[in-house]
Amino acid sequence: MCLFIEGASTGIDPHSLHEQLAGMIKPYYIPVGKEEAFFTAAYKQQLSVLLKGPTGVGKSRFVEHMAQQLGRPLITVACHEDLTAADLVGRYILKGNETVWQDGPLTQAVKQGAICYLDEVVEARSDTVVVLHPLTDHRRELNIERLGECLKAPPEFMVVLSYNPGYQTLLKDLKASTRQRMVAMDFDFPPAQVEKRILEEIYDIGPELTDKLVRLAAVMRRLDAPGLSEVASTRALVATGKLVREGMSPRDAGVAAMASALSDDPEVIQGLTGLIEEYLGD
Amino acid sequence: MIEPSDSPASSEAPNWRQLFTLREDSVEPSSLSGLAFLASGIAGRQLRIYLLAPAQPSYTDGQTIFLNPELSTTQRTAVAAAHAALIDAGSLDSQCIRAISLRPAVAARFFSMELPRAVRGCESLLPQALVTNLPLPENICGSVEESLARAKDHRHKVKPTESWLGVLRPRRMLRGAGPGSANAVAGKLDSFRINQLEEHDEDEDLDTSSAKVMKLFSSPLASANWLTDMLQQILGMGRGGAGEEENDGSGGAHGGGSAHQASGENLEITDSSLQMNTMDERLPLLPQQTDWKYPEWHAGKGRYLPDWVNVNEIEAPAEPDQRLEPCDVSMHTLAQQLFKVGVEFENHRRQPTGDDIDVDALVEHLVDRATGHTHEENIYCNSQRTRRDLSAAMLVDISRSTGDRLADGKTIFGQQVHAARLISRALSYFGDRVAVYAFHSWGRGITRLLRIKGFDEAEGALIDGRFTGLQPSGLTRLGAAIRHASFRLQQEKYHTHRLLMVFTDGFAYDDEYEGRHAEADVAKALSEARERGVACVCISIGSEQRDDNLERTFGTSTYLHCQKVRDLPARLQRLINTALRVTEKTR
Ligand SMILES: Nc1ncnc2c1ncn2[C@@H]1O[C@H](COP(=O)(O)OP(=O)(O)OP(=O)(O)O)[C@@H](O)[C@H]1O
Ligand SMILES: [Mg+2]
């Protein structure tokens, strides 16, 4: 299980800090549409949010950004199939001759009034996800059976789930009763203009390379080649730009980040490499 | 049972290769695969790039972009991108094309106006350098309709595009069943109509293949009769047909025999359908037997032949008193390997180690300790991969070629059947859902799957009898068999893992189904299955097929080529688990 606790503790107001530093620091997230207003509304109304979208389009980045904007700590849990309810809620561990209770990330988030972000939530088994149910409806409470306790969530506490519908199977899906409790936000690749700003303003990739990368990505995302399940994401473009900044040729960087990384099929790699050369060659 | 109109056939059996092999004047060099990806991305659908013979102008038929080989590299890119843009812009949809197909001058004017419009429309997708290179005029039409109207109006002056940008070939476009007529049947009818038009047309040649296509459609009734005749005969439904065949080795004067005879490969096929006929007398038809139609992948054309193969599934006849050819593997060794296959996590209590404390066990343990008893500290819970979560189907090739004797006197057929029976028993014993099918074929009209064990049937004497009742005969249309078995597995919704194990000697061979075409179709069928969540494992026992052929056929999925069944258990577990994992990733 991975657990990250990020952001400021409740004491500091990173919002004012952000204001102060505005103009001095780079933006962290560039909004694509009305997502910030939407998220803020959900937060104020104590609704849980489901972020849907392909990999590498900025879902995690957006949540981090919103946590910062709202001045809440962010607790991220990367879900996987072995994740148990106890991993989320907490468990007894043995210390010497005694058993000691240890809070899980979800319990910590409830206690701190944090945003709890469950990344790739469909990977978790449905019996695990069910612990969220009483937290995400009108009750807003967490039952900790083993302690015989019931924690009431403060208004600041928020659940955010993300998943990528593209590579999901027909078999793995969220329970209808879980979906029922969410409001959903659809993410897709940012439009060319926004993607250009991301590359230029956040990552200092020059306008010429940025233009090439964005055009290349637009074509790649329209490709429907068999054996190619994921296409060049914003993340892959950023990676290409970073490699170029370290002195790699754009062509080599592109192949490394957008051809070999995406497929193991030699024919697909060859085709992608040729395509990348059309845009980034010499 | 079968829709005759879907199945082109004629009394003079068509030569499939002639129909679908690409024109000899074009080749597809692999160095152009980057261009093909570029074109596909621009058009938003799969396109291929071929080089023409020198001096021929570039054009597209909607599936492939044919390039003049004398173009410079930058020109090639520009032409490929521009023609792909035409497809994306809808300039080549069948209504437009039909409107200009008989008027070359109008077509040329239309091309000159649509090309810039199309390129402008996808400018943001193109490499910047290319956009600057492409000479785009100032005034560009706003829509296809506008271009069409202006093209027809000869008073309107049109600046012709530069000749290196190629030409529009409306009839090739229609023949290629382009984007506007994606519907398969409509596509075929289109090509029929077009071929008629072409007879009095000098600019486009009427090659033999299209002549054949026309013939096919000119006698739909004849083809229907041919097909029904043949099926009745093979299925044993016609009265007397089978009996006559048996006495008459030449294949008879009517029905399937005659059709095959004309195809030139009659000997092998007629011969084996004879065997089938004798066998069929024992094969009951299922009460609600249905036939399935599956497409076949045509690598040369880069597309599917829709509803191409007819598959039927029947219960295998039981021969209870027979024995299987012996084989030197015990069920025990196989079971040991299969125990760890297709399992998922489940929670275990009272474990010596684990992620979580089992509170009940802990309390007991503390009480025991307080009262002076000592016990092992089995006080944890953990999650282990022990929950069976697998549906498996086995597909056994029982074509004639598997009957060949190996050096040790055993047959591939016997070894495969035996291995399948052992695996089926082992998996059923663990509680997995298992089905076993044997298959063989007689041309695309009939690929038969004999159901030895259905998913819902329990192991037992009846199933054993069906195993022993199998006989090698027929040919191997492997792609269709895989598609049907995979379809059956997809209907299994109980489990997370679905596994298809194919036992074959690896010679995919049937009437008009061989060599690279057959290999590519099998590879395609396997990847289709995988995309639908069915993991595939191909096993060849004792086959003399060369490894590079097997590689081409099964290369995209996990396969095992072993000399003896004895070699199988040691590698089975890895093999299956790899396949399951790969499939999980593809999904
Ligand atoms: N709107 C945006 N503003 C700033 N950066 C962005 C934006 N969209 C994408 N990015 C960049 O894309 C990268 C990938 O985004 P992120 O990690 O949030 O993807 P994700 O959608 O969470 O993907 P996954 O589903 O794989 O977790 C980020 O590190 C960031 O560099
Ligand atoms: Mg993420």
Question: Summary?
Answer:
Chain A is an alpha/beta fold and 282 residues long. Chain A has helices spanning 14-21, 35-44, 59-70, 85-89, 105-112, 126-129, 133-136, 176-179, 192-202, 207-222, 234-245, 250-259, 266-280, and strands at 3-6, 48-52, 74-78, 90-95, 98-103, 115-119, 141-144, 149-152, 158-163, 182-186. Chain A has 2 domains: 2-186, Rossmann fold (3-Layer(aba) Sandwich); 192-280.
Can you walk me through this structure?
The complex is a heterodimer of chains A (282) and B (587). Chain A folds into two domains: 2-186, Rossmann fold (3-Layer(aba) Sandwich), CATH 3.40.50.300; 192-280. In chain A, 42% of the residues lie in helices and 18% in strands. Chain A starts with a strand and ends with a helix. In chain A, a hairpin with a 2-residue loop joins strand 4 and strand 5. Chain A has a six-stranded mixed sheet, sandwiched between helices. A two-stranded antiparallel ribbon of chain A has the order 4-5. Mean pLDDT of chain A is 85; it is low at 1-11. By secondary structure, chain A is α/β, with parallel strands linked by helices. Chain B has three domains: 8-235, no CATH class; 291-337 and 389-586, Rossmann fold (3-Layer(aba) Sandwich), CATH 3.40.50; 345-387, no CATH class. In chain B, 43% of the residues lie in helices and 16% in strands. Chain B has 22 helices and 14 strands. Chain B has helices spanning 16-20, 33-43, 73-89, 94-100, 104-121, 128-133, 144-152, 170-175, 184-198, 208-218, 220-235, 241-247, 255-262, 266-280, 331-338, 359-370, 412-430, 461-468, 478-490, 515-531, 547-554, 568-586; strands at residues 48-51, 59-60, 64-67, 291-298, 303-315, 343-351, 356-357, 380-388, 390-397, 433-441, 447-453, 497-503, 535-541, 558-562. In chain B, strand 2 and strand 3 form a beta hairpin. In chain B, helix 9 crosses helix 10, helix 11 (220-235) packs across helix 13 (255-262) and helix 15 packs across helix 17. The longest helix of chain B is centred in the last third of the chain and has 19 residues, at 412-430. The radius of gyration of chain B is 30 Å and the shape is elongated. The two termini of chain B are 34 Å apart. At the A-B interface, strand 4, helix 10 and helix 13 of A face helix 2, strand 7 and helix 22 of B. Magnesium ion binds at residues 59-60, 119 of chain A.
